[in-house]
Amino acid sequence: MEIKVLHQVMDWNEDVSDEVKETLAAHHICMINVMGSPGAGKTSLITSLIGSLKANWRIGVIEGDIAGQTDAERIAALGIPAVQLNTDGACHIEAMSIQHILPELPLDDLDVIFVENVGNLVCPAEFRIGESLRITLLSIPEGDDKVEKYPLMFTDTDCLVLNKYDMMPYFEFDESRVGANYKTVNPDAPLFRVSSRTKDGIQELSVFIEEHIRKAQS
Amino acid sequence: MEIKVLHQVMDWNEDVSDEVKETLAAHHICMINVMGSPGAGKTSLITSLIGSLKANWRIGVIEGDIAGQTDAERIAALGIPAVQLNTDGACHIEAMSIQHILPELPLDDLDVIFVENVGNLVCPAEFRIGESLRITLLSIPEGDDKVEKYPLMFTDTDCLVLNKYDMMPYFEFDESRVGANYKTVNPDAPLFRVSSRTKDGIQELSVFIEEHIRKAQS
Predict the structure, then answer these.
(1) Which residues are registered as beta bridge partners of B83?
(2) 3-state secondary structure chain A
(3) Any chain A CB within 8 A of the CB of B170?
(4) B47 three-class SS
(5) Does the structure show a pLDDT above 50 at B1?
(6) I need a surface site. Which of A123, A132, A176, B85 has the fewest CB within 10 A?
(7) Are B120 and B66 in contact (CB under 8 A)?
(8) Distance CA A65, CA A67 (A)
């Protein structure tokens, strides 16, 4: 019974996702869905990317959280248009929520929107939200067995960011295990090693993102 | 529509949870639901607790994962009866799955069953599985803002374990923030500082768990 209902909800979600895509295409906006576990470092990564990209591109942010608004406040403090989307208990963002919230952002004045999804390595991967690009974060402290355990999040993404990479000396993390498993489930997608603290790897990731921003502009 | 369906599923789940509770009570077994983010250290904590408890109690383990069986293999290698429960994509364990899997364990020869839930700081908290005790893990690398952002997981638990506590020197983690927010949402539940690596705090947590095991025995 549960599975049948899930399909109904998701079919509906896919339709709205396509509508969101059309709205964004009309404004030549690249929307990036940032996903990962709680504490993987999604907000810090977005903050670092804003620092790297804001000279060339006009950026907006949608901060998804079950509750609270600390992340949106962090982004707004950088002078970036930010909206907090509280899911009130739901474990992922759905396209309908994005459709409702988009008019709160100055769409005519944006090139790229980062959407920080709810911290969750499972459910967000199942729901398209009209994004042009998906980024999955895996932080070093989470461990090297996550691709096997949470395959969809690594299969259905456009790139993998190994985040908090500066923490490698303090954890037993077999990078070759992650790399091999990721290549198996998602052979053509790139992998980036990033530290938001030291900014290592932010430049390489920014180049990749800019390719997608330019694609949305053309 | 989605919310209505969720309630249907959960009502059903509560009924089965009560049935599981009765089965366990008939066998005087204390079942412990271990919840937390991916990579919070659930398997390592269970492994450490087995080391601490096995001299006095007969232990079984149910390892919940979306896919894979590495965790059950880790536990079985300790000579502990272990069953792997693969949810095949689902983001949490439901009572029905526990009901199906319990006969795979030697219930007449067990005092305590650890259930490692799917790594997820959201959904598992919504689903009772017939447990006597809930343990929520928050690892230091995940950050100190998680109680505000994922309130249900910290409200609806019997204790909070601050895990990977040996990592405190390497992360900016304001323990007083977590402590204050936890006390607000869950005033009577204890908080334990634990490192599975150094075994610090395992003894204190074991004493707490043993109280609950004895309760199930009486």
Answers:
(1) B62
(2) CHHHHHHHHHHHHHHHHHHHHHHHHHCCCEEEEEEECCCCCHHHHHHHHHHHHCCCCCEEEEEEECCCCHHHHHHHCCCCCEEEEECCCCCCCCHHHHHHHHHHCCHHHCCEEEEECCCCCCHHHHCCCCCCEEEEEEEHHHCCCHHHHCHHHHHCCCEEEEECHHHHHHCCCCHHHHHHHHHHHCCCCCEEECCCCCCCCHHHHHHHHHHHHHHHHC
(3) yes
(4) helix
(5) no
(6) A176
(7) no
(8) 5
More confident call, B94 vs B58: B58
In whole angstroms, give the CA distance from residue A122 to residue B93.
13
Helix (H, G, I), strand (E, B) or coil at B121: coil
- Any bridge partners for residue B85, and if so which? B64
| Shortest distance, CA A209 to any CA of chain B (angstroms) | 25
Strand partners, A140: none
Q: How is residue B118 annotated by DSSP?
A: -
Give the integer Cα–Cα distance in Å for B79 and B94.
Answer: 26
Mean pLDDT is lowest, of A96-105, A138-147, B20-29, B46-55, for A96-105
Angle of the B2-26 helix axis to the A2-26 helix axis, nearest 10: 140
A63-67, A194-198, B124-128: which has the minimum mean pLDDT?
Answer: A63-67
CA distance B19 to B99: 8
Cα gap B45→B71, rounded to integer Å = 12
Q: Give yes or no for residue A212 having a pLDDT over 50.
A: yes
In this complex, which of A8, A37, A151 lies closest to B37 when CB atoms are compared? A37
The phi, psi pair for B66, rounded to 5°, reads -60, -45
Residues paired with residue A135 on neighbouring β-strands, in sequence order:
A34, A159
Tell how far CA A178 is from the center of its chain. Answer: 19
Across the range A179-200, mean pLDDT stands at: 98
* A178 to A150, B149, B164: CA distances (angstroms): 12, 28, 21
Q: Are B20 and B98 in contact (CB under 8 A)?
A: yes
Residue labelled with tokens 């490192």 = B195
Whether residue B121 and residue A121 make contact (CB cut-off 8 A), yes or no, is: no
Write the single-letter amino acid at A213. Answer: I
Strand ranges of the sheet holding A82-86, from the earlier edge strand across to the other edge: A82-86, A59-65, A112-116, A30-36, A133-139, A159-163, A191-193
Interface test with B, best of A88, A137, A142 (most B CBs within 10 A): A142
Q: Contact at 8 Å (CB) between B114 and B59?
A: yes
